[in-house]
Every structure is written in structure tokens, then in C-alpha cells.
Amino acid sequence: MSQKERAIILLSGGLDSLVTLAIAKSYQLDCHALTFDYGQRHIAEIQSAKRIATAFDIKHDIVTLPTHLFKNSSLTDQNLKVPTHQTNIPHDNQIPNTYVPGRNMLFLTHAVSLAESIGARFVFIGATAVDYSNYPDCRPEFYEAFNQTISQGTKAGVQGTPMTAIRVHTPLLYLSKQMIIAHGHKLGVDFSLSVSCYQATAEGLACGQCESCLWRKKGFSESGVVDTTRYG
Amino acid sequence: MSQKERAIILLSGGLDSLVTLAIAKSYQLDCHALTFDYGQRHIAEIQSAKRIATAFDIKHDIVTLPTHLFKNSSLTDQNLKVPTHQTNIPHDNQIPNTYVPGRNMLFLTHAVSLAESIGARFVFIGATAVDYSNYPDCRPEFYEAFNQTISQGTKAGVQGTPMTAIRVHTPLLYLSKQMIIAHGHKLGVDFSLSVSCYQATAEGLACGQCESCLWRKKGFSESGVVDTTRYG
Q: Which of A20, A182, A187 is nearest to B189 (CA)?
């Protein structure tokens, strides 16, 4: 077997990042996971990311970000209430208060720096534009622009070809939760490793009521895959 | 289980299109395959496409193109010799004589028309830029431009959002043959259904000598997946 190429995977500990890691692993990439501690309420996600990295037997770094940058989001600010239910998210133009300003761009910039330093041309993020389409940093246009930026702003981008330059890959971008779960199931993913809940307990038990729990439940139901989520 | 969304899959009968179909199916998409008869020498590919469509139990149309458009390619012109070996393809700037002028654009245009007429937002093609990087219509830039074109040139593109508009998906674009085979294996693909050889027999037996056979052999060897290709 030939030498494996390297990849950086943004691993939040949620279902989408778990499936994204499974995709990268199925390409036989040598994966290096990155998780960020940005003062998110759902610290259970970080525990979940650790469990996932251990299960996949991959390198895993946890980077702490300056939390004072992330205010005005219900995911980081205890004074804001996490919505328990939101309907028609893809149909109106409101950005949910669970949006964390500039988050994905900061995550990706760290990942690209690491990629360039260890010689990886793949950076994976499990962003999806379908279910949560009002997050500005989950839109296809954001990733196209970001890839343009790194092709201009890295040595590998300026000197390389499209096949050697670093690129952010978003394999879930156009997929519904149903499709993501079905694909992950086919790849043999153990979904119980992941936590999606915005207010999970320290032990990783999900509330079953928040926006994120409801999307996850709906995805399992529609895909016909057994829901192994651990509810509190 | 919810209603399945529709997808058009360009199915040549080769290994890459087989894996691409398996990916689309794993998303639980309702797949409709399109194969083109463009006077290619390796007519065994069309038989292989039929076998694959039957195995996956999906709709399958074979479209005959005006073959006089495709001269100057060793794949369609009996007067040109198919190369038996080509080294360093990704490193020089020569376009192999197996390139068929404008082929993928013509295939995709048919697929987009069908997609718009049956209400599919996904069009899949198994193009890969890594091993055959000198085919102009296998480069990322081509697909980015084509997607821009259909977003401007279709009703769904002009009226829709990025999540409802028709888009060409190239899940293999940045993957090596090794990665494609490993991913397909994980999805349960039966590789013996496909024919990659540029001069396969009518029964679908591969020569084992041509450029395409050598890339395929190398991919199996590097991935560690058992090569079930039928050689003559």
C-alpha cells in the first residue's frame, strides 16, 4: 500500500463532523482532527470529539480560542435563550441566534495553517447548507470564496496545481440530514459517539427538545436508520 | 421515510462512474442514469453501464450522439493508436490523444436538461482531476464555470436558492484512484460490474495493458482492495 496523504478534519463532536471524518477515513487519508474550545455552552461536544478521535485512532488537537470574541450568540452567551423550536428556517431570512460570528472562518484558518505546516492538501468541514441555510458561513458562496482566498494566500496555492494546493472540502454541503445519516450509515458510522444537542449534559445526554435535537431526530426518522442517540 | 429527491448520474460503465452512482444511492437519492453512445471504441462500456443500472435497479437512458463530431481522439478514431503506457501525465502539459473534444460538456448539458425537466437538483459525474489531470474537462475550473453557467441559464438557477438550484456534483474530483476504490469498497461496490479498459472485448474483458488498465491496477494495488476486474 502506498504512503497515505494527510488531511485535517474539523471535528466538533456533532453528527455532521463525525460523518465527515468517516468519509475522509474511507479515502484512506491520514486524518488529523482539530476541535475548538470557544466557550460553547455544550461542552459535551468536546468530550464527544475526544471519544470520536479515540474510536478512529487519529491525532487530535483541541485549540482554545479567545472566548470574549464570541458574544451575541445563544451558544456562547448564558444570557440568551437557546430556541426550542424554529420552523421554516430555510424559508425566511433570519439568522438564528445560535449563529456564532465568524466562527467557521476562524476554524478554517487554523486548519489551513496546520495543513500547510504538515503538508496536507485536504481540509474537511462538515458544513451543510440545507437544514441550517441561514448561517452565513454554511453557504456555498462562503466556501468558494474561502478556497479562492487560500489559493492566493498559501505557498501551496500559489506554486501548486489544483491537485496539490490546499483546498477546503465540504462533502455534506448540499445534503439534507436524511442523506447525511444514510451515507454515514453505509460507511459504518456509530452515531452514538456524537452529540448534536445544544444543551447536552456533561455526560453527553441530549435534551431531545432543542432545534438541533429536532433536526437530528427528523433525519433519523426520514432515513430509516435506527436512532442510537443517548437522550437524558 | 420521506419522499426521495431525484438525481441524474452520468454512467459511462467505468469504475469512477460506478463509485459515483454508489455515492448518490447512499444519499438515498432516486437515481436516473444517463449513458452516451458517441462512437467510442470501447462499446463494452455501454454493456457495463447496462449491467450496473440493472444491479442498482435504477432508470437508465442511453443517448446516441452524432459521432462525426468526435474525431481526433484515439477513443473514437480507428486510425489513431490507443497509448499502451503514459508516464508522468500529471507533470507535463500534454493532453493525451484519448481526450474527446467537448465530451463532458455535451454529456452535462444533456443531464442538466433532463434534471430540469424531471425536477432533479443533483447531477453527478465521476470526473477526477488527479490521475488524468490533463483532460481539460476534468479540471475543477471547468466544473466551477459550468455550475456558474447553469445557475444563470436554468429556471431553477435563476429563481432558486443554492439549495434548490441544479448543480453538477463531482465527488471524486480531488481523489486519487486509490482513494476512489477504497471509498467505493467501503460503500459495498462490486467493481467487477465496471469496465475501464479502452479496448475491452465485447464480453467486457480488459486488456490489462492500456493506460486506463494500468491506472486501475495501480489503484487496487495501492488501496489494498482485491482487484476483481475480469481480464482477457
A: A187
d(CA A231, CA A207): 6
Q: B169: Cβ–Cβ under 8 A, 6 or more apart, which residues?
A: A174, B122, B123, B124, B125
CA–CA gap between residue B94 and residue B185 (Å, rounded): 32
Whole-structure pTM value: 0.83
Can you tell me the ipTM of this complex? Answer: 0.76
Torsion region of A72: left, alpha or beta (phi above 0 gives left; psi -120 to 50 gives alpha):
left
B26 in contact with chain A, both atoms CB, cutoff 8 A: yes
CA–CA min distance A111, chain B (Å): 18
Q: How far apart are CA B177 and CA B90, in angstroms?
A: 13
What are the grid coordinates assigned to A104, written together? 467557521
A91 vs B contacts (CB less than 8 Å): none
- The model's confidence at residue B87, banded by pLDDT at 50, 70 and 90, is very low
CB contacts, 8 Å: B187 with chain A: 26, 186-187
Give the type of residue at B101. P
Asked if A165 has any chain B CB less than 8 Å from its own CB, the reply is no
CATH superfamily, domain at B6-223: HUPs (3.40.50.620)
Between CA A140 and CA A167 the distance in angstroms is 14
Lowest mean pLDDT among A7-11, A38-42, B214-218: A38-42
Contact between B186 and A182 using a beta-carbon 8 Å cutoff? no
Q: Flag if B178 and A23 touch (Cβ within 8 Å).
A: no
Angle separating helix axes B15-26 and B177-186, nearest 10 degrees: 40
With contact defined as beta carbons under 8 Å apart, do A138 and B160 qualify?
no
pLDDT tens sequence across B184-198:
999 999 999 999 898
| CB pair distance less than 8 Å for A161 and B90 | yes
B-chain residues near A169 (CB < 8 A): 174
Q: What is the DSSP secondary-structure string of B35-71? A: EEES--S-THHHHHHHHHHHHHT-EEEEEE--GGG--
Cell 500547510: give the residue.
A116
Residue ranges covered by each domain of chain A: 6-223
